[in-house]
Design brief:
Length: 306
Amino acid sequence: MQVKRLGITLIAGFSVLLFVAACGDDKPEPTPVPVLSTPTPEPTIDPTATPAATVTKLDIQKAVERALEDRGTSASVAQLGRIIREDLLSVQFPNGIGIDSDDLDTMIEEELIPAREALLAANRAQEDENETTTPDVLFRYMGAVNSLYAGQNDEAIPAFDLIIRVHPDMARAYYYRGLAFYRSGFDEEALADLDKAIELDPEPGEPYLQRGLVHYRSDDKQAAMRDFNSAIDLAPWLADAYRNRGALFLNNGVAGPGLADLEQALQIYEFERNRERFDEVMAILNDPPSEPLQMFTSTDLLPRLP
């Protein structure tokens, strides 16, 4: 009996030893040591560096107000946009750097178009009211032409705007407004109006002469020559057309036709008793200048009133 107990005890003890031995191999996982990352250094700010200039929405709104107050609706959106951009680019911030932003044109347009449309609506309402008391559009037309003759282009342009709005098929109004645009330095608008004038009435020679001058100033000499030719074909009494075509011939080394055109212009100036132009052309014929001849732009551009 004792032997049996002893055997059981030995077996139990041996089992315990085996269990303890098996459990002893499971060591706990070591606790990971946290790795500290190297902190990113703060950017160094140079106190002597000049910050870049910026343009705010308020800056643009003020520039739009200045442009509309100065030009009103007498200029197109494209013209006003250029004026506003030049205004903004001329602004100098305390750091001395001017505005320069790729998005500037888009920002200007977002502020300009609604402001201009509101002003146009207000002006049209006032014009509509005036039309009920001044129905004689010819009176307005004469006033606009007088402004043009006086060199008051900023007054003539909006006056012709109104006439064209009331009479959109009036070729002379487009011609005169194109002339005012040309004299104000807006060649794209001048060309569009002169094209329209010729489309509506292709017979008068003056719009071709004026359009030739626009092409000449835009350095399109071939288009200028075509228009001077058309002006002479349609209105052979236009002395400036001969004189300008002659100058274009001479500037391109074509002496024979150039001198012949100047002689023809000289005869017309003498017939018209235009002493100033007669003397100028005579001086060119007697002593051709070494520099390229410039165009004549002041006479023959204002045709006789209908």
